[in-house]
């Protein structure tokens, strides 16, 4: 599933191409891509609207129109791209936005888990999501206070989008390894020193991943079928049976929150 760096990569590729363009026609190839609103109401709300900005909130791509907002969640295999070239294979295209200047914005999704939501007030979405890990409010102090008042396994907490918006399986494994925290460790037992290391790890790894255009494990691509380049920087994710880059201990794969989770048994003692 695309996580914060991958979604931010898509946003940065789309923003200069979409700002100022008008949605002329919305074409729902697979109508179920629209969530929680009638298709006719969605179409009436977006057609004729100008795209004022493209931003990100957690794992959502936000298209800010004249009077409404669209929130696109890519889920497992979704991708959003713009092109003037004819698209002949519509097998995995779930929606098309025909926009001004003769271009089209395509939503392609092999597994059809991705969804598009319509919001008139983004506060509704904002209340569902936790703090932004790259936002100014995400400080070491905030993290320390919010770990102490919870008693949850660390990986479970990092994956909880109502706590911290944007991390998924890849970057949760990477930041916990960087901070030398076991994924099953309870949040209220993490020391202030480890909290500082975790905060630094989250900021550094996410920033580096964005600079590399994210990570492509299997499906993630962005404009013109480009792939992410952070794969070469992964230290533990999907590295089971390899040597830990820090201590040479064999990396193990365990289960945490029902997810395959990669750890160094020596660096990340429980």
Structure description:
- The chain has 270 residues and is α+β, with helices and mostly antiparallel strands.
- It is 27% helix and 22% strand.
- The protein is built from seven helices and eleven strands.
- It has helices at 4-18, 39-46, 123-126, 140-148, 154-159, 169-179, 192-211; strands at residues 23-27, 34-35, 51-57, 60-65, 69-73, 78-83, 93-99, 103-109, 115-119, 252-256, 259-263.
- The chain has a five-stranded mixed β-sheet. The chain has a four-stranded antiparallel β-sheet with strand order 1-7-8-6, with helices on one face.
- 37% of the residues are buried.
- The model has no long low-confidence stretch (mean pLDDT 95).
Radius of gyration, taken over Cα atoms and rounded to an integer in Å: 20 Å
Secondary-structure-derived class: alpha+beta
Find the count of extended strands (DSSP E, 2+ residues). 11
CATH names the topology of the largest domain as Helicase, Ruva Protein, domain 3
Which CATH-level-2 architecture of the largest domain? Orthogonal Bundle
Q: Note the gap between the termini.
A: 27 Å
Can you give the mean pLDDT? 95
User: What count of structural domains?
Assistant: 2
Shape descriptor: globular
Helix count from the secondary structure assignment: 7
* Series of secondary-structure elements, N-terminal to C-terminal: HEEHEEEEEEEHHHHHEE
The biggest beta sheet, please? 5 strands, mixed
Beta-sheet strand percentage? 15-25%
The CATH C-level class name of the largest domain: Mainly Alpha
Low-confidence stretches: none
Strands ordered across the widest β-sheet: 2-9-5-4-3
């Amino acid at each position: 599933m695309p996580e914060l760096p991958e979604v931010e990569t898509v946003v940065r590729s789309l923003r200069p191409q979409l700002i100022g363009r008008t949605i002329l026609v919305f074409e729902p190839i697979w109508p179920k891509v629209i969530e929680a609103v009638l298709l006719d109401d969605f179409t009436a709300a977006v057609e004729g609207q100008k795209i004022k900005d493209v931003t990100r909130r957690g794992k959502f791509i936000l298209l800010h129109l004249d009077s409404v907002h669209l929130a696109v969640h890519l889920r497992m295999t979704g991708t959003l791209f713009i092109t003037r070239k004819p698209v002949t294979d519509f097998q995995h295209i779930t929606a098309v936005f025909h926009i001004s200047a003769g271009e089209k914005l395509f939503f392609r999704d092999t597994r059809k888990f991705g969804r598009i939501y319509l919001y008139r007030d983004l506060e509704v979405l904002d209340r569902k999501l936790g703090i932004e890990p790259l936002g100014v409010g995400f400080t070491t102090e905030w993290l320390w206070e919010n770990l102490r008042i919870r008693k949850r396994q660390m990986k479970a907490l990092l994956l909880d989008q109502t706590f911290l918006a944007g991390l998924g399986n890849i970057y949760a494994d990477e930041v916990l390894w960087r901070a030398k925290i076991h994924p099953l460790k309870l949040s209220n037992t993490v020391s202030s020193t480890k909290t500082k290391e975790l905060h630094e790890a989250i900021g550094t790894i996410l920033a580096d991943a964005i600079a590399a255009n994210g990570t492509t494990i299997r499906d993630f691509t962005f404009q013109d079928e480009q792939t992410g380049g952070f794969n070469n920087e992964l230290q533990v994710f999907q590295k089971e049976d390899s040597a830990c880059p820090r201590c040479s201990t064999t990396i193990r794969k365990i289960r945490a929150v029902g997810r395959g989770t990669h750890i160094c048994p020596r660096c990340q003692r429980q």
